[in-house]
Write a structure and sequence with these properties.
49% of the residues lie in helices and 17% in strands. With 401 residues, the protein is of the alpha/beta class. The radius of gyration is 22 Å and the shape is globular. It starts with a helix and ends with a strand. Helix 1 runs antiparallel to helix 11, helix 2 runs parallel beside helix 3 and helix 6 runs parallel beside helix 9. It contains 13 helices and 11 strands. An 8-stranded mixed sheet has the order 3-2-1-4-7-6-8-5, sandwiched between helices. A 3-stranded antiparallel sheet has the order 9-10-11, covered by helices on one side. Strand 1, helix 2 and strand 2 form a beta-alpha-beta unit.
Length: 401
């Protein structure tokens, strides 16, 4: 009798894990449908002038694609683009000048800045250098690996101008699939960003800004202190969100989808970036969150660990119920991603990379947990940084090769 009962509990656990994960995926799907079906803000009677502030730092990403997308933006109001490069980055400067010459109708200007932290200027220094030249009523900050879709500002700007809104930001769709490292990163983001961020935004008011691309009315940006005091910080986007919220304004998650080309050559590069993504919020964001916000953040991520648990149970017991449970969980993972890709992202995963989906469901959550371990030293664009609690960083020198 005891052996029969002991043989039964793994089966019950297996079916419970599958049921919980199916419920998790269903709730995320319902949250996505509710979010994307909400009516957008009405188009303004007069579209405000917008200044795109674009810090450019040497990187393997295709800067030409990103800048050509900005030159092709379909925006009904006045639009100006400020490209900010390092003084020593001749290759990026040459590309910017060539594109500006080839598109005389594109209102773009090139700004050069000296280094302020190590060999290059920090992102904050670049953005600050652009501010005296920014004449828009709305400021839009865009990273150099982001390719905005033609209607991006038509989506984003009305949210940034709503009463009580201090900052508005969008959702990333990663588009680099060339190497295994790129494919793992793109797959990780595309399978987890929308089903993670959107339900979280429905549970609690957004408490940070996704810094790839966000917009702020100039009056709110200036009233919140702008970029003053952000030198030597790695959490400039989160600090801006804190300042906005201190003023009683909201940070808003919008349905804007933008493309990010994140080129990674090796699996070591993939791991290093994953470590940055885990370390940054742990050091700068978590200490400031309320209990409710921490609980919502934890709850929004718990479901991701159910497929790894199912896989471990199947590996340990090799029982048909555990194997079936794992199969059902993987099917739910792949099914939700297929719906997200078709309905919202609009960028298909290459057929040759779809075999990575089971690994993304089972191994990536474990990798994220592993990436949280270790020290506080990271690498970023050729430099070694020590990330300190509270949002500060120290440049330790050039990346070791």
């Amino acid at each position: 009798m005891r052996s029969s009962r002991s043989a039964r509990w793994p089966d019950r656990l297996a079916w419970a894990l599958a049921l919980l994960y199916g419920l998790d995926r269903l709730l995320r799907l319902l949250a996505l449908r509710r979010f994307f079906r909400r009516p957008p803000p009405p188009a303004p009677a007069r579209w405000p002038a917008v200044t795109l502030i674009c810090p450019v730092t040497r990187s393997p990403n295709d800067l030409r694609v990103a800048l050509e997308a900005r030159a092709a933006l379909d925006y009904p109001g006045p639009l100006r683009c400020l490209l900010v490069c390092d003084e020593a980055d001749g290759a990026s400067q040459d590309l910017c000048r060539a594109l500006m010459a080839a598109r005389p109708a594109w209102r773009a200007a090139l700004i050069l800045v000296p280094p302020d932290a190590g060999a290059v200027a920090s992102k904050v220094a670049k953005m600050r250098a652009a501010l005296p030249h920014a004449d828009g009523e709305v400021l839009c900050f865009v990273d150099d690996d982001v390719a905005l879709r033609p209607d991006a500002l038509r989506v984003l700007v009305p949210y940034a101008q709503r009463p009580g809104v201090g900052a508005a930001f969008g959702l990333a769709c990663y588009t680099a699939w060339g190497t295994l490292a790129e494919s793992l990163m793109s797959g990780f983001v595309n399978t987890s960003a929308l089903p993670g961020y959107v339900p979280l935004a429905l549970m609690v008011e957004p408490f940070t800004i996704t810094g790839h691309c966000f917009a702020m009315a100039r009056e709110h940006f200036d009233a919140a202190g702008g970029l003053e005091g952000l030198e030597g910080r790695f959490d400039d986007d989160h600090e801006l969100a804190r300042r906005v919220r201190w003023r009683g304004l909201r940070v808003v998650q919008t349905p804007l989808i933008y493309d990010v080309e994140n080129r990674l050559a090796t699996l070591a590069d993939y791991h290093a970036q994953l470590r940055r993504w885990v370390l940054f919020p742990r050091q700068a964001m978590l200490p400031d969150l309320s209990r409710r916000e921490r609980a919502a953040l934890a709850l929004s991520g718990l479901g991701n660990y159910l497929p790894p648990l199912s896989a471990l149970l199947a590996l340990a017991t090799r029982r048909p119920a555990a194997l079936a449970s794992l199969g059902l969980s993987l099917g739910a993972f792949v099914g939700l991603y297929a719906l997200i890709e078709r309905a919202y992202l609009g960028r298909p995963m290459p057929a040759g990379r779809q075999a990575l989906l089971p690994a993304l469901a089972v191994l990536t959550p474990l990798h994220v947990a592993l990436a949280a371990l270790g020290g506080e030293t990271i690498t970023w664009r050729g430099q070694r940084l020590r990330v300190e609690r509270g949002g500060r960083f120290t440049v330790l020198g050039a990346e070791e090769t």
